[in-house]
Fold Alpha,alpha-trehalase.
Amino acid sequence: MNKQLYIHEIQALFDDVQRSEVFEDQKMMTDAVPLFPVEEINAKYEAEKQSENFDLKEFVLSNFDFLGAKISIQRENHLPIEEHIEKLWDELTRTAYEEKGTLLKLPKPYVVPGGRFNEFFYWDSYYIMLGLQVSGRVEMMENIIENCSYLIQNLGFVPNASRTHFLSRSQPPYFSLMLDLLFETTKDENNYIRYYDTLEKEYAFWMSGAEKLENGSAVNRVVKTIHGDVLNRYYDAENIPRPESYLIDIEDSENAGEEFYRNIRSACESGWDFSSRWFADGEHIQTIETLNLAEVDLNCLLWHLEKTLAKSSSLQKLNEKEIDYSERAAKRRQIIDQYFWDETSGTYKDYHIQKNTNTASEHIAALYPLFLKIASEDQAKAVAKNIEEKFLYQGGLVTTTQNTGQQWDFPNAWAPYQWLGYQSMKNYGFDDLAEKIKNNWCSNVERVYKNTGKLMEKYNALDIETVAGGGEYPNQDGFGWTNGVYLKLKKN
C-alpha cells in the first residue's frame, strides 16, 4: 500500500493513542505504517472502541506496522571509534523509493541520524556530510544534495524531516553550504550551475511575502523593521500540537499564549527545540515567543544563500542576476551588523521585532558571523573572548548560559556547534582556542564511546562523568552529526 499517510486522516484514533500514552515515545505513532486502507481502519475503530474488552494498543498493533521504528546498533566487539563510524555509515543508510505511511519518497539513498530518528533530516545532513567527506563517500554526499534538490523542486523547500507532518516547516537553510562542501571535495563548479534553479526556489520560499510588507510587520518567514529593513525569522504555518510531541504540547499549552503551538513549531524550524533562547522570561516554555524574533543564524545563512546565488549567476554570465544577488548580500551583511551585533556584551544576539532591541539570551548561534566570515576582526575578537569565558567547558561548547532542563540549553554540547566553533576560531586566527574546542569535545566523545560503545546525539560539557540529558526524549545513539563532526575535527 503506497498511499501517503497524513496524520489528520486518522485524527480521532491518533488523538486517543497519544492522549492514552499507548507508546512511551509519541513519535512511534507518527511513524506507523497502515496495514489497511485508512478508511477501513477508521471505520473499524469507530465500530470496536465502544466494546467492553477493547484494547487500544492491541488495535493499533494489529492495524499498523512499526518496523524500523527505532534504530538500535549492537556490536559484539568494541571497535576503534573511527572503524565504528565507518560501519555506522552503512547501518544508518536508508532508502525511500516509495511513499510509506508518513514517510516521503526520495530519489536517492540517505543517512539518517539514528535512534528514534529514522528519516532524512535537513540540517543534520550537512554535518553528516562533513564525515562522509573524510570517509571519501562522495556519492552519498551527492545523494544528500540530490534529495534536498528533489524536495525543493517538488515542495519549494526542504522540510524539517522527510515526513508528511513536517510539511509546514523547514530547518536552517544549509543547501548552499552543502554545495560549498561538495565543491571543496570535488573542485567541480558545475554543481553551482546545475542547482541554480534549486537555490532560487529555496530563496523564494524564505523570502515569500517580503515585497508586500509594511514597516513594523511580519508575514511567513520575513519581517520588516520599523526602519524598513527586511530580516528573516523561523516560522511554521500550523498552529496545532506537533504530532510527534502531541501530548507534551497539549500539556505545555496550559497557561500559554494563543499562538503557543505555532511558536513551538517555529522554534523547531531552527533545530533548537527547545531552548531559553525562545522564552520571553528565559525560563519557561509557556512564554515562548519565537515569532517575535529575527535570528542571527538564519540571517547569516540567507546571506550565504544570496552570495551563492551571485556566484552561480556569475558562472553563467547572468549579469543582472549577479548584480541583484550581490546587492542583496551586501545589504544583508550591513543589516546583520546593524541588528544583531550587541556592542555592550560584545557578541551577536537575536533581534526582538516588537521591542526593536536585542534579546537578553546569550547563545552559541553568535558563531555564525564568524563561521561565514561576516564579522570584523574586532567583533571576532570580542566573540572569541565571550565564547572562551562563558561557553567553553571541559567537555565542549555549551549552547546557552541558562540551565532550564531544556536540551538546547546549558550544560549540553551539540556536535554542530563544535564544528562551527572550531572553524570560526580558525577563520580569525584564534588557533589555540580552536584546538581547545576540538580537543575538549572529541575527548568527551571518546570517553563516552569507551564507556558505552555508543556515539550520542548530544553530550554534557560540564559533567564529563555522565551522558547528557534534558529535553523531551532520552539521549539517542547513532548518531549522524556526531559521527560527521568527530571525523572532520580529528582530520583537521
In short: The radius of gyration is 22 Å. The chain is about 45% helix and 10% strand. Residues 179 and 358 are 32 Å apart (CA to CA). Residues 7-30+32-65 form one domain.
